[in-house]
Design brief:
Distance between the termini: 14 Å
CATH architecture of the largest domain: Alpha-Beta Complex
Radius of gyration: 20 Å
CATH class of the largest domain: Alpha Beta
CATH topology of the largest domain: Quinone Oxidoreductase, Chain A, domain 1
Shape: globular
Helix content: 25-40%
CATH superfamily of the largest domain: Medium-chain alcohol dehydrogenases, catalytic domain
Number of helices: 10
Number of domains: 2
Structural class: alpha/beta
Length: 317
């Protein structure tokens, strides 16, 4: 089978011909239709889980995926051949990922039946970004009419956050870098936008909201920038980052709750997203659909924070 993999940590991803995985007890064999790209994918290549989980080389990249169940191993009860499924395919050993024509996934992984109303290509864009958005809004505790400053709004996670927050009546201020982004964010539910290429986020927010916003969700900023943005949050507000750059001291200085946020993938979270999509309440923000040969370039763009919406790799039918 074809797969996108690296030969060692920090290696350059390339399309390789690798053996098709075998079905083992408790696992399902998935014929992958598409894989969703996330920054965590290249962080795996850099060794973020080295020493925490066993790894297998060549290391096939990819956490998010969607596809059709080809076969099931002994003891599997939740899925059957022909089912359309999606979710986070990551499992031990790291390196049997979703950037492949086939993947064997434990039944107990964060996977579930795919939404009926969208394609598998769209479904592949949902798992990590959608669950992160869902869970970080819940963690924020923000309520109807409270004000959220969302930094990094135009990527996959941000696009989901805007929609899910707007559904709850949260007033979203989204950072953008173009007029095109501004239109897209407002269509998804943002009430205001700030073009950080033209304006200072700090000056704009502090002038519009001198008492501070109720919450900050920052998906992209380094530590110094995140610290500065926390000054825009009202005392006893909340500041969360997915970039793991927060410290207790930064939050304590403003009496804020929050800090570093990590997603916990579960089938229940996926099912809640499925319901929202199938009910027409949630639009999946697919930004670009690429082929396997385009992955190295797309990873470079992701490293440089150039992503718009969600990049999905089309793999099979």
């Amino acid at each position: 089978m074809k797969a996108v993999a690296v030969q060692q940590f920090k290696g350059v991803p390339e399309v390789m011909e690798l053996p098709r995985p075998e079905v083992k007890p408790g696992t399902i064999l998935v014929r992958v239709a598409a894989a969703g790209m996330n920054p965590f994918d290249w962080k795996l290549v850099d060794g973020i889980l080295d020493g925490k989980m066993p790894h297998k080389f060549p290391l096939v990249l990819g956490v998010d995926g969607a596809g059709t169940v080809e076969a099931v191993g002994d003891g599997v009860t939740l899925f059957k051949p022909g089912d359309h499924i999606y979710g986070q395919f990551i499992h031990s050993p790291v390196g049997e990922g979703s950037y492949a024509e086939y993947v064997a996934v434990p039944e107990k992984a964060a996977i579930s039946h795919a939404p009926n109303s969208i394609s598998l290509v769209e479904a592949a864009a949902m798992p990590t970004a959608g669950m992160t958005a869902q869970q970080i809004i819940e963690r924020s505790g923000l309520k109807h009419e409270q004000i959220l400053l969302l930094v990094g709004a135009t990527g996959g996670v941000g696009s989901f956050i805007v929609q899910l927050a707007a559904m709850q009546g949260i007033y979203v201020i989204a950072t953008v870098s173009s007029e095109e982004d501004e239109v897209r964010m407002k269509k998804l539910g943002a009430k205001e936008t700030i073009n950080y290429k033209k304006l200072s986020i700090e000056k704009e927010v502090s002038s519009r909201y001198p008492s501070g916003v109720d919450g900050l969700i920052d998906l992209v900023s380094p530590a110094a920038v995140f610290k500065g943005l926390t000054e825009l949050v009202a005392v006893k507000g909340v500041a969360l980052t997915t970039a793991f750059v927060s410290t207790a001291e930064v939050l304590k200085a403003r009496g804020l709750s929050g800090g570093n946020f990590e997603t916990q993938g579960t089938p229940a979270s996926l099912d809640a997203l499925t319901d929202a999509v199938d009910n027409g309440a949630l639009v999946v923000p697919v930004g670009e659909v690429i082929g396997m040969q385009d992955v190295p370039g797309a990873i470079t763009e992701s490293r440089n924070l150039k992503g718009k919406g969600k990049t999905v790799i089309r793999i099979g039918g």
